């Protein structure tokens, strides 16, 4: 089904920017209202990473030798912060696919609203959700004995890198949700989230893997963010002599920017082609 957007009056660039932000905020409030009507789903999404931390800490913590010594949670938490950013990908994919399959996205596109508002509103809502989820994870880590040792500025920089990764993954989630066409089609994609997360240095040193598999894990964008946040928080990490291991900090910025450069235009193009 094709949709026709009504003709809109000409606006100045500043006026168009304000119009886009106003419409985007409307979409954001719409998504937040949906979460308020289904608090159980949102709370489970926030609690799930905490459950994973408790499981790994309780079941495997005593069997894993922390590099450089120290407590297991000191090593685990920065990696789990990174995994939490990845878990948010499923929320984005499901919400976008649901709206697209029910025709909600087409109805938005037929309204006299800025074309970017639907995507921007989705991004804003999911980023707010991710900020709350990351705050809960940090609080859980503090209760379990995790601490940062790099000072407030370094800790804020680490949080910034985590949210930068989440913002990049948002665009991947939007594209996958638009392509999937419905929540049922996402099952096979969601299964891949776990292998992507585990095929990194979050839990295991890539040096212990077969050479080809370790190379993939080392170049996983999650590995760069996990290593960089461990360094900024002053927590123990795997280290390594490879180029990617030695340059985790700049790569924690380069990878999200590269992912955004790839998935943002693809998402926008796919959104514009919906219903055509």
TrEMBL record:
The chain crosses the membrane at residues 43-64, 127-146, 153-180, 186-204, 248-268. Residues 40-274 form the ABC transmembrane type-2 domain. One of its GO terms (molecular function) is ABC-type transporter activity. One of its GO terms (cellular component) is ATP-binding cassette (ABC) transporter complex. It holds the Pfam family ABC2_membrane. It comes from Streptosporangium minutum. Keywords: Antibiotic resistance, Cell membrane, Membrane, Transmembrane, Transmembrane helix, Transport. This is Transport permease protein. It is found in: Cell membrane; Membrane. It is a multi-pass membrane protein. The lineage of its organism: Bacteria, Bacillati, Actinomycetota, Actinomycetes, Streptosporangiales. PANTHER family: NODULATION PROTEIN J. GO terms for biological process: response to antibiotic. Belongs to the ABC-2 integral membrane protein family. InterPro entries: ABC2_TM, ABC2_TM_bact-type, ABC_2_transport, Nod_factor_ABC_transporter.
